[in-house]
Each structure stands twice: as C-alpha cells, then as structure tokens.
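INPUT
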Amino acid sequence: MDLKNKPRELLELNPYAKVPVLVDGDAVIYESAIINEYLEEKYPQVRLMPQGLAQRGMARIWIDFCNTRIHGAAHEVVHGKEPEKAREKLSEHFRTLDRAMASREYLVGEYSLADITFIPVFTRQQRYGVPIDESTPHLKSWVERLLARPAVRSTL
Ligand SMILES: N[C@@H](CCC(=O)N[C@@H](CS)C(=O)NCC(=O)O)C(=O)O
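OUTPUT
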C-alpha cells in the first residue's frame, strides 16, 4: 500500500489510517498488538501468550515497552526529530533489554508475543543507526536467536 497516497478504503477500515489492518470475515481489527492477540486467541493450538496471569501481565508490559518506548524513539530517529537525542533514548532502551536478557532465553518464559513484537525493530535496525553489538551481548544473542527462527527467516 502506498502510504503517501492512502486509499480511501484504509480510512474506512481504520480511523487511524494506518497499517496493519486485519479483515477477518466481519471483524476489522487494527493496531498490531491487538491483531497479534486476536490471532493468538483465534488459533489456540499455537500458544503464544504465557499461561500464568502474572506472566501474561509481564508479556503485555514488554509489548507496551516496545510499542511506546522503542517505536517512539525509532520514529523520532527516522523522522529527524532531534535524532541524536532519540538515538540516545534508543540506546538506553537497548541497555534495558540487555539487562533483562542477561538471565533468560526469551523475555517471559517460552518464546511468546513479547519476543515477537520486537522482531520488526531488529530486522530494521540498520535504519536507526544504533548498533546492537558486543556492548549489549545478551541483547545481541537474543536478537540472533529470534532472527534464526525458521518462521522469522522465512519473512526476511
Ligand atoms: N501503533 C500502530 C502503528 C502503525 C503504524 O505506524 N503504521 C505505519 C506503517 S509501519 C503507518 O501506517 N504509517 C502511515 C501514517 O502514519 O500515516 C500499530 O502498531 O499498528
């Protein structure tokens, strides 16, 4: 879709006029985090949210962290809004993730929507000019683990 020349249909489907939008029969769902949870609930045979209540809360905290903090800073970098400050914020967020990943393989127990939410940030990391390198080794190996998953590789 040409986002500089949005079709009218997009605004009819999503009042925010943004992609992605999921149309599933009569259901029209927008906001990527909500689409992800919709699909997770629709296909319970593939469990991508933790089973425990507190763990589900934690997964949602990380999803929010990605969608507000990380995407917020990344958006400022890409749109040239005080980009140096924005890169510093992004580095700080990457250090937060590095500390979180020091003691675990995935963000909350098993591989979940919490991890999946970050994948588009990592596949586009070149755009942001904040390298993920040996200075954040736990983050780096988590990113490598995520990008090596067959389902992720098939989209690259
Ligand atoms: N919070 C939204 C953000 C969606 C978003 O920013 N989409 C971008 C493309 S990646 C877009 O549609 N941009 C067009 C615009 O903002 O006009 C989500 O997670 O779905």
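end of record. The chain has a mean pLDDT of 96.
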